Amino acid sequence: MKPIIFHRLFFSKFFAIIATFFIFSMLGAQSWENQIWLPKNYKSERISSYDRSGGNDDFIVIPKNSKVTIANISGAGVIKHIWFTLASKDPMIRRNAILRIYWDKNLHPSVEVPLGDFFGQGWGEEYILNSLPLVAAPKKGKALNSFIPMPFSSEARIEIENQSDLEIPSFYFYIDYESMKSEPASKLRFHAWWNKSVTEPATDSGKENEWSLLGETEKAPLHTKNNYTILKTKGKGHFIGLNLYVDSPTPMWYGEGDDAIQIDGEVWPPRLHGTGTEDLFNTAWCPKEVFMHPYFGYPRISDGTGWLGRTHLYRFWIESPLAFERNFQFTIEHGHANSLTLDLVSVAYWYQEIINEPMPVLPKKELRQNQPEINFRHIHKWRDSFRSEKGKGLIWGHE
């Protein structure tokens, strides 16, 4: 039996590797295989943290509570790759450090996102992410990569703000870009926005009712008033992706919430209306397993009972970005009919023409921190309350 099991495991892994290679090859065919041999009308450029003295201290120090501009590029071009890695004694440095990117001398940043969340690392944690646009690579997700093209006409400025009370003693970076003699063909610029909310049940009963466990499930209202907001913007552009970080304080399935995408002033119901959170992220039936595709996946799953704890989901509309002419609104329910308390954090990624207005203010550091962990001790206290309600004695817990 052992040799048979070995062969089954071997061939299972072998075919998984072959399938992954095939998928990536097919996805890349149009983007590079049919293009890579054509003449290139740009100059390859890089800004990095290499040691100008010739030594091996290839990093910069970012003092506590300070800002550092790591790239200030003049002229026209496209940023094609960003790589960061850093070390700090602050365990929440990936939430406490902020990435800002400014385009074409605009006074307001088009990107203002906590560093880890931008690169697909939630809750200040470090773990592997393997998507097409964003990659958190070994060691253990410490290497943060973006392959999202970011065009500019006259200037690109990248700033890191360390809002921690501790310095970042070593911050390494590459900014790889193509400089051009003429402006990009499009006026659309890359944007990213961070949001966070600890939601409250918005049901008429006030109950966190899912799957009819606490009585008949209420009907969802025919509007998005109480939905969680992933993005609301105005102008012309297209939406390309989403990272969603869910922290659930209950073992109940968090993902019955439908998404609603309203484009150019659509009233209810929008033509892009979903059927559940896992469906939006191209999975099914309440998954709880690590899975990563170039376009979508679950790189981090909850390790508690049921779906108690932290889950990270991502989705990129690479094959067909969601285009809008005047405005765009993307919301999602927190549980069916907005019935659940969840700590939701999201990063939206999109392109649009620059509007000379600031995005919603990024919450202060204290308001961006994680919720306290719910663990087995709290569950045992819940059981004690249940036993007291039932009159104590022999209570199994299913009554």
Verbal overview:
Residues 1-26 have low confidence and may be disordered. The chain folds into 2 domains: 43-184, Protein of unknown function DUF2961 (Jelly Rolls), CATH 2.60.120; 189-210 and 217-380, Jelly Rolls (Sandwich), CATH 2.60.120.1390. It has helices spanning 2-33, 93-96, 115-118, 277-280, 376-389, and strands at residues 43-48, 60-62, 66-74, 76-87, 97-103, 111-114, 129-130, 134-137, 143-146, 150-152, 155-162, 168-180, 188-198, 228-234, 237-248, 259-263, 272-273, 291-292, 296-300, 309-316, 322-324, 327-332, 343-353. The strands form 3 sheets. Strands 3, 5, 6, 11, 13, 15, 18, 19, 20, 21 and 23 form an 11-stranded mixed β-sheet that branches. Strands 1, 2, 4, 7, 8, 9, 10 and 12 form an 8-stranded antiparallel β-sheet that branches. The chain is mostly beta strands. The radius of gyration is 23 Å and the shape is globular. A hairpin with a 3-residue loop joins strand 18 (291-292) and strand 19. It has 5 helices and 23 strands. Helix content is 15%, strand content 37%.
Characteristic terms for this protein:
8-stranded antiparallel beta sheet; disordered N terminus; DUF2961 domain-containing protein; DUF2961; 11-stranded mixed beta sheet; 15% helix; 399 residues; 5 helices; Jelly Rolls; mainly beta; globular
